[in-house]
Amino acid sequence: MERVPETWSRREILQASAAVYANFAFNGSVASPSLTPDAPAVKTGLESLIEQEFAPLRDKRVGLITNPTGITSGLRSAIDVLASAPAVKLTALFGPEHGVRGDVPAGRGVENSRDPRTGVPVFSLYGRVKKPTAAMVGGLDALVFDMQDIGARSYTYITTMGLCMEAAAENRLPFYVLDRPNPIGGERVEGNLLDLRFRSAVGAYPIPYCHGMTVGELARMINEKGWLANGARCRLTVIPMRGYRRAMRWEETGLPWVPTSPHIPHPRTAFYYAATGIAGELPSLSIGVGYTLPFELAGAPGVGAERMADELNRRGLKGVRFRAVYWRPFYAAFQGQLCGGTQIYLTDPAQAELTRINFEILDALRRISPARPLFGTSKNGDRMFDLVCGTDVVRRQLLAGRSAERIWTEWNAGSRAFRSARQPFLLYP
Fold it and tell me: Which tens digit of pLDDT belongs to each residue from 360-409?
């Protein structure tokens, strides 16, 4: 990667920022526009529902929880599909983070509104209200969930699904999940089981950080394990995919990719999210968010890029290599400042221990720049780090000088038991 100019004007930074954001826009555009003319190998839950001529929802007033990722293989929105479906009355839409049409930036509250295309009322689930209220679901006969997850516990869509399941249980409504693939695979299970003292929107259930499940499988587990509030259970129906296998790469599904959020522009980005997203909660680190390689970089102003890359490569981590790189974020952390660090190359994603990379990066920074504070620069940053880790043990171990290998081994210890615990809820071979 070429170095950016040492000095940019504010206007140049803003222009570049706008260009990058537009390129990765989350307004329903597909990151990889070339679509195969053949039928995709996998049919999503939405397309299975269409093939069933909407039989499960016939004569029902439906509330749909979705965003731009809820599409057919022909790029038609689930909103528009249900709005035009015979004998189905699309009565309400529920907007998670980013909104039902993807027009709300990350972290910004979603407002109640009316969908301009269909005229259907839109209720916010990302703001003051996180769970549909009795008033919001009044008059509905069913709730339907259709969103693409990325396989990581900290992604808020899982929490939104669980809260909507609670609303369904409380209001005696059937709940339907239209299933979709896990882009980092159905066999990858990594990380600790969430300590419920650290339960939050970025970790609501005692599952590993990489859970290796689809949203439909997760819904089954959450429901049957009694993880909803007060041990409630909803009347859950998963509309499964057809043709999906656990070991599938996204490219093998034949499905188009819609960015699940502005900084997940490609299917591969889901792997990098798992590799750096935990470390990136710290304000002392840039992970490429606000630049053209979100989650694929790690560094900060004043970091010796060559030293950091050498230190990480010296560790011989499976399936990954590191290259010295410099970049200047257009926005977000260290906007306009020259950062030094490393670009991450997943040479064999199947072999890479993705979540371990977070801890190796922080350990490497600590070793090459011992005077650089990782923690304590922001109380909120430290708190968010603990929440996405699902524990405060990792932070305390890093502060105590424990090696990344030891931290990872202990943090990952619960994943083996989870592989067995999830087995009854799996839907695909």
Answer: 999 999 999 999 999 998 889 999 999 999 999 999 999 999 999 999 99
- Give the global pTM: 0.91
Evaluate whether 294 touches 305 at the Cβ level (below 8 Å).
no
Reference 344, options 373, 377, 312; nearest CA is 312
What is the CA 394 to chain-centroid distance, rounded?
21
Residue 410 and residue 282 share a domain: yes
Q: Is 124 helix (H, G, I), strand (E, B) or coil?
A: strand
- Going by C-alpha positions, the residue among 284, 48, 295, 36 that lies closest to residue 150 is 295
Quote the CA–CA distance of 125 and 162 in Å, as a whole number: 12
Beta strand 174-178 with 142-146: parallel, antiparallel or unpaired? parallel
Answer whether residue 30 is part of any domain. Answer: no
Q: Which residues pair with 227 in a beta bridge?
A: none
Nearest to 96 by CA among 106, 87, 86: 106
Q: Residue 98 in contact with residue 67, Cβ under 8 Å?
A: yes
**What CATH number does residue 139 fall under?**
3.40.50.12170
